[in-house]
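Researcher: Next entry in the queue.
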Amino acid sequence: MKKNILITGTSTGVGFESAILFAKEGFKVYASMRNLEKSNTLQQKITEENLNIEIIQLDVTDNNSIEKAVDYITVKDGKIDVLLNNAGAGFAKTLEQSSEEEIKWVTDVNYFGVIRTTKAVLPKMREANTGHVINVTSVGGLVGQPFNELYCGAKFAVEGFTEALASYVSPSFGIKFSMVEPGGIATSFMENAVAKTVNNNGEMATGDYAPIFQKYLEGAQSRATSENTSPYQTGKEVAEIILEVAKNENPPLRIRTSEWAENMCNLKTKSDPDGTQLVNQVKEYFL
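Model: Structure for this entry, 287 residues:
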């Protein structure tokens, strides 16, 4: 039977590439995005290549939007085999200079959005005693980085959230959980993150942090142009890893998507690279 997948954040980047790859692999793809006005590029690809992709509206910050999308899919197909929580947003700004609104926004998009969509699909997956939730996190979910404390905090939260679910939902109801942890992605993601630090005059709003932030930007630009140490992958390269995880009968709990990402997290992951040992230990302690 053909499997279907719900993907969030498919207007660009990893989500866009994932929708195409999964469709070519034979999945029925529900490609969701907050703003359907940004669907033209994907729709053109669907038409050109006759892909089995249906574009639907879903805003991860809006419960009603999520419930409507999930209900639509389950009524139409009776199931959701895979949920790919890809929607997210970068944010590079100091805590001191972040407004309460920005703090809530970055947490809402990157963490609460994952909770909402996961909660919406779990009942159907539990009834079917099968399913796979794949969360795109980041090396920033394992390693705190300069000017990314709010983003990293949200991604750390996703990591803990996913680990906890895997410790009891997986063995009890056959639902798999995975976290895909890229380094940098060569899309507009980083540009959008840094844009948050610009004030109304187009100047970097970093105040006393300006010299450190300048050094941070120079380092990011240097790494981006380095052939040997660049953390940046294309959206398609990351999407290919996600597809392999989804096809795996025994998928890893966590996986980095590049050598750079692996090296970045090595001190935290070398004793248990895919997270399986830790989850098994937690199950022994508590269940």
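Model: The longest helix spans residues 100-128.
Researcher: Noted, moving on.
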